[in-house]
Amino acid sequence: MKLQKFFAWVAVAIGLIYFLVPLIGTMEFSLRMRRNAYSFDAYASVFSDFGFITAFGFSMLMALLTIIFGMLLVVPTAYWVRLRLPQLRPVVEFITLMPLVIPAIVIVFGYLRLYNSSSILPLTGYNSTTNILLVCSYIVLSLPYMYRSVDTAMRTIDVGTLTEAAESLGAKWTTIMFKCIFPNVMSGVLSGAFITLAIVMGEFTMASLLNRPAFGPYMQLMGANRAYEPSALAIIALAVTWLSMGLLQLVSRFSKSAPIKA
């Protein structure tokens, strides 16, 4: 028993070394921009760069739009499948899992082929429509996580009882959805939103091939032309991801302690 416990701690130590040593090395290198001294000059250089502000702001906007429209797509779908069409549940789950097995580069090349400037819907011909296409791409990428989070939250409530009670009081479909269903699955929506934020902030393939000024292509550009700033950007991106995961854990903890509404 003691031997098993010893090997378990050895495995944990190896895992921590494997993950922490590269992070510590990246952090240490990002502080060496000033010769013979540690400083935050690389971070100051990044934050003062207008390209960073533009790319970070653009990705944050895309993440916000992706979360909003993804939520409006996923929550009604999960609600309708659970309430009226349970026989379609395997089909919907299969569709939502497809982005996990289809590479992003295949998806974006399909978009470029379907929506190029010579097609019926030339979405790639204008910046605004290309942004719409990018949001749709991000919704597809985040679909497995958003749907799973919302569907798990919806299992904890009695959808049928809530719907019948609302209908008996004369509520319309929109009232049922936004005043009964959404508040009760908000923990799942927020969980999916934080994961979506992490995905959008780190995504490179779609934004690069669609030629959008997102954070992922900006990091790649900086990595090809600078020495210390890429390490600072990596730490910043990691901080955004950890913040999203921390908020996810916080929301999950509050959702477990909150009473279930019938």
TrEMBL record:
Keywords: Cell inner membrane, Cell membrane, Membrane, Transmembrane, Transmembrane helix, Transport. It is found in: Cell inner membrane; Cell membrane. GO terms for biological process: transmembrane transport. Residues 56-251 form the ABC transmembrane type-1 domain. GO terms for cellular component: plasma membrane. The chain crosses the membrane at residues 6-25, 62-82, 94-114, 126-147, 185-210, 230-251. InterPro entries: MetI-like, MetI-like_sf. It is a multi-pass membrane protein. Belongs to the binding-protein-dependent transport system permease family. This is Putative spermidine/putrescine transport system permease protein.
